[in-house]
Amino acid sequence: MRKKIFKNIEWGILICTILLILIGLVALFSATQATQYDELKKQIMWLCISIPIFIVIIYIDYEIVAKASPIFYGIFLILLIAVLFTKSINGATSWFNIGSFSIQPSEFAKIFVILLFSLVVSKIQERGKEQISRPTRLALALLTVAVPVILIVIQPDYGTAIAYLVATVMMLFAAGIDKKYIITAIILVAVMLPILYFFVLPDHAKTRIDVFLNPNLDPRGSGYNIIQSKLAIGSGELFGMGILKGNQTQLGFLHPKTTDFIFAVIGEEMGFVVAAGIVILYVILITKSIYVAKTAKDNLGSYIAMGIAGIFMFHMVENIGMTIGLLPITGVPLPFVSYGGSSLLTNLILIALLLNISGRRQKAIFVE
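^ that's the sequence the OP posted. Answer follows.
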């Protein structure tokens, strides 16, 4: 059975993941030179922890993992509530600090929200594919996403909350939801955006949007990071200034260079060629994730794969978009490249689930 699973696995997904991790480690090597490579060492340690978990997830049938998801979903709901009472870091209560390490429960919760939502939708559709378009059943399914999203918004962590919503929309699209709901949602978003801006968003969030529209409003304050990021990427030109040779990176003008603006480090020191290569790798990864969703052996696998594709798509677009000034800064990391143990482990588990689903695409490999 193992041979058959490995024969069916979408190896392109794994190759893209490995290449992104390697590029990220090189970028962290350069970005952490001034701190004696502290974050690089932690990233390697998290990678070593993640690999055995990654392998185990591939072997366990994703149906079993999905059935266990309600338990872990409940645990992470409790953690999302508990984290609200921790000390604020950069204006958000999103992390548990354990010694020199930080754990972000909203990252790990992505896994079980996707699994549980996919499980609920697939169960609803056992009585007919059109059942998900019934208001009561749709509301029940959406409740599994709404609760953690509300808790994450309270932290506040708007970027991560939007990632959940993007994944949810893609899963509902795969489930064949009635188009009237999609049209209604688009209209509601269009109406709610100005209301949120003027009456709901805190001042710091409004400032980020204003600075996104015009960084020169506060070039030494809120607009500083994006201005430095654009300078770094632009100065890299075609082939970059060289590892450990980037002016903005090495002289401390770029911040935070190991997380939010790691793409700017790559653009400055490795140039357009590598930066464009990263975008291509993500496009391949997301495209193949959607292909896994289309070829999954059942609805459950299809919805999980689509949700994962949505997570990666949002993170890639938002992180790269904010570093080049096309989108507001939200603090969303670049998967596999940015420093962050919680993010790395979560993303590798999501990749393991994709490989799990792709490896089990042929029903013949299962014992009926």
